[in-house]
Amino acid sequence: MKIETYPDFDMLTLNVAQRIAGDLNAALLHQDRALLAVPGGTTPGPIFDDLCAADIEWSRVDIILTDERWVPGDHPRSNTKLLKERLLVNRAAEASLLPLHVATETPEEGLPKLIPGLEARLPISVAVLGMGADMHTASLFPDSAELTSALAQDAPVLIPVRPASQPEARVTLAAHVLNGALHKHIVFKGKDKRDALDAALHLPAQKAPIRAVLDGATVHYSES
What we know:
The chain has seven helices and ten strands.
């Protein structure tokens, strides 16, 4: 793991967008397609605003969320909605989005329709991950009854989870899928999260899920 510290979040977002673009272009030199995995939430939006204009052969890029709430794509709490508004625009409109939701009542019913398409495109070329102050990443939450299954090396590539702290059921990429990305960028801001990362280094992944994806990752951090 390597930590890069920035004087402000604007500089962080610009640099991370450039690094992602470089990683994707490098991947496309050696393979027909590249897979980019990205988080939802508020933090990555400014990165997407820069990345969507990058000079990449986007028609050869597949994009998938690291996790998603089990809600329709036009729902206000859908991370897919964020991607369509902030990343799949400009030059990046030519990229292909791999869905993490289908019209079933529960994720367990929908996963058989989602997993084959994802498995065919693995491994992830570039993974962008966030981290919460509770040391979760993607939807690998410490208070999730499904965490042990999601951390297992033989876990299915997609796991349904219902963390006690979250109002909706979710699906998340399994830890081994995220950790297997060829390039990993972990992005966050705020001293509370830097303190959380420092604490996570001394805890098992069962208590600090971010630990499961730190090997070989670059952490991008700004205090504000």
